[in-house]
Amino acid sequence: MALIVQKYGGTSVANLDRIKEVAKRVIKTREEGYDVVVVVSAMAGETDRLLNLAREAAPEPDERELDVILATGEQISSALLAIVLNSMGYKAKSYLGHQIKITTDSFHGKARITSVDAEKIFSDLHEGRIVVVAGFQGEDERGDITTLGRGGSDTTAVAIAAVLGADLCEIYTDVDGVYTTDPNICEQARKLDRISYDEMLEMASLGTKVLQIRSVEFAKKYGVTIHVRSSFNETKGTIVCEEDTEMEKALVSGVTYDKNQARIEITKVPDRPGVAARFFDAISAANIVVDMIIQTASLEEGYANMAFTISKTDFPRALGIARSLARELGAKDVIAEEDVAKVSMVGVGMRSHSGVASKMFRALAKEGINIKMISTSEIKISCIIDTKYTELAVRSLHEAFELGKERK
Amino acid sequence: MALIVQKYGGTSVANLDRIKEVAKRVIKTREEGYDVVVVVSAMAGETDRLLNLAREAAPEPDERELDVILATGEQISSALLAIVLNSMGYKAKSYLGHQIKITTDSFHGKARITSVDAEKIFSDLHEGRIVVVAGFQGEDERGDITTLGRGGSDTTAVAIAAVLGADLCEIYTDVDGVYTTDPNICEQARKLDRISYDEMLEMASLGTKVLQIRSVEFAKKYGVTIHVRSSFNETKGTIVCEEDTEMEKALVSGVTYDKNQARIEITKVPDRPGVAARFFDAISAANIVVDMIIQTASLEEGYANMAFTISKTDFPRALGIARSLARELGAKDVIAEEDVAKVSMVGVGMRSHSGVASKMFRALAKEGINIKMISTSEIKISCIIDTKYTELAVRSLHEAFELGKERK
């Protein structure tokens, strides 16, 4: 019998009425002849409520204990769904992370799944049950509860789909699928029928918050086909799968943006070997993730400029480190820009098509948008611009690359 | 190092301020040189909130799944206490039932603890940690979450005290200890310094809701000394321990009452062998617990009267069964009384003192209170009376047995 893993996000199980709708959809899939494993998130708002409760207890709650509290959100929603399914006449059983040995490392709050034991699930499916799994949680080698970070239930679903060898992993959310860009700022945004894992990874990490990045990595590694779709309608969503030749024909697949960016530049650093290393060692020791890095050396004068971007949340700390190191190294100045955004073009077509970058720069120049930094990868080009131009940039690029038109 | 197990009830951890008070008390005990294991209930009202949520999902929620939901109450309060203790500079770790292998049978909602694994607790205590355990929950042989019923955290605490060989098990609640009777209806009610396990068992099962009965059974079986006391003050409470000669000197220890009673009488049942068995088989098959049973046979006429008491909640179902069986057996009538209460005298002194029963009946007669049924055990005499006389009866008996006076 074919097997489908379905994951329902927080808004899809926001209240009992919504949970009953989810139950109907699960039953419909069951009636179509599939074995079904359901992964659920906490009811919308619950994780924040629990987080606030823990922070009221202590501003920086012990991480091990915080995970114990956060895990209850999914514990409740999974059991509620099982209760509803049973009451509708379908045998169902809920499982917590530890009960099906969703084993993770010990990084509380952002743990990574290392293995899942499929035995109990298979035996329940064999006995005709619907299996409901609490997403977002696991257990480390010590038997402590861990959580997987925001969007972690996506990864739970994909990991389970991988272990069970499921035919499909459906991710139900409150949007219809993956769009060429954010429909809230660009009316022409178009839903993509298919997108490759690599494109999705770039889209997700660049701020399109449809899937947790790690779930896409998992899906890519184990070849799990994902169908991202809405639990509020019957519309087909977006399939995330292996790259195919169709995808390559398109120049780019989407435009993304991220306003949670800040830029720091240290000017006229005496250009000695090891200067950059010394600086980024200090930054990474402070657990700050640096995104773009650009170093320009003026060989004549023996000076270099170093610029990098970080997330806005890390900005104050990064600035402190930059200033103290600039003094130490005898640099001229530290320029801090908190009002910058990153706009990116993503597409596997870039591998075989040239001219994407120049077309992008021309489109931005045409609108008078100054590019402060550029970084590129195999399937992505990103530019740092003033935050105020973000929406204009996204619309212009979407238009310039004709993303609103159906792919042939 | 001496070891104390402390259990804090729902009102003692009702909110974060209360949890911080609990933390201070735990730390005080730690600073006095004790190893401390803390067992906590859910925050007051939480279990009811969760129960209502499950019942909204389905009027009769699947029992396995209901326990998954109910267990989150203690999961949250135990982790919150650990967070607060850690923030106050004391290393603390919370454990859920399954993490320290609190193994139970599979009767969801009223499971019985069969074993506890002390290994993790000992190793944490050895490393200087305070251990916090989520009360009320366990795990059955299949790995399913179970709960122990109302007051189940008391039993968790006593079971852990038994396994660890603790020197004392303190049960912190919102009353000062065990009283000779309910202070709300009798001003002369006096707090008992000490009470035997057997007396406590009779007191608890008769409606003095200070300790879960099963916790007292456990304490008796494993010789755990319990100290019932208030978390809202420093007053000494009541010690529950082995019977001693002091206790035997007192005629009775307390008066209890239970208004959750109903009485059914089947009159003129043709008196054939097996009639009673047939009737009580039907009642117990319906999972109804019968308390008192009185059968009076009139040998001349070949008829018997059968009377029994059940809890008010079981009354409608029991009445239905009684009526249909009465018809079948050709009995004359079924008399149903829903407005009855049980008043009881409890005391190990009864074993050696005579005249307690007659003194009790005289005291009730003096107030013109009619006794509808009587039952006795080694250390208890109970009478069924009209509910409206309950308070009067309790006060009269308390007075007649001079329970307000200090035991010498």
What is this entry, summarized?
Chain A has 408 residues and is of the alpha/beta class.
CATH topology of the largest domain in chain A: Carbamate kinase
What structural category arises from helix and sheet content of chain A? alpha/beta
Main sheet overview of chain A: 8 strands, mixed
Mean of all residue-level pLDDT scores of chain A: 93
Number of helices of chain A: 13
- Rounded to the nearest angstrom, the radius of gyration of chain A is 23 Å
According to DSSP, the number of beta strands of chain A is 18
Report strand % of chain A: 25-35%
CATH class of the largest domain in chain A: Alpha Beta
Helix content of chain A: 25-40%
Biggest interface? A-B, 37 and 37 residues
Care to describe what's here?
Two copies of one chain form a homodimer. The first copy, chain A, is α/β, with parallel strands linked by helices and 408 residues long. Chain A has two domains: 3-174, 3-Layer(aba) Sandwich (Carbamate kinase); 255-400, VC0802-like (2-Layer Sandwich), CATH 3.30.2130. Chain A has 13 helices and 18 strands. Chain A has helices at residues 16-31, 46-57, 63-70, 72-87, 119-126, 152-164, 197-205, 213-222, 245-249, 275-285, 315-329, 356-366, 390-400; strands spanning 3-8, 35-40, 92-95, 103-104, 113-115, 130-134, 137-139, 145-147, 168-173, 194-196, 226-230, 238-241, 254-270, 290-298, 303-310, 333-346, 373-377, 380-386. In chain A, the strands form four sheets. Chain A has an eight-stranded mixed beta sheet with strand order 3-6-2-1-9-11-12-10, with helices on both faces. In chain A, helix 1 links the parallel strand 1 (3-8) and strand 2 (35-40). In chain A, helix 1 (16-31) crosses helix 4, helix 10 (275-285) packs antiparallel against helix 11 (315-329) and helix 12 crosses helix 13 (390-400). In chain A, 49% of the residues are buried. The model of chain A has no long low-confidence stretch (mean pLDDT 93). The A-B interface holds A 16, 19, 50, 53-54, 56-62, 64-66, 68-69, 71-72, 75-76, 78-80, 82-84, 86-87, 93-94, 96, 98-99, 143-145 and B 16, 19, 50, 53-54, 56-62, 64-66, 68-69, 71-72, 75-76, 78-80, 82-84, 86-87, 93-94, 96, 98-99, 143-145.
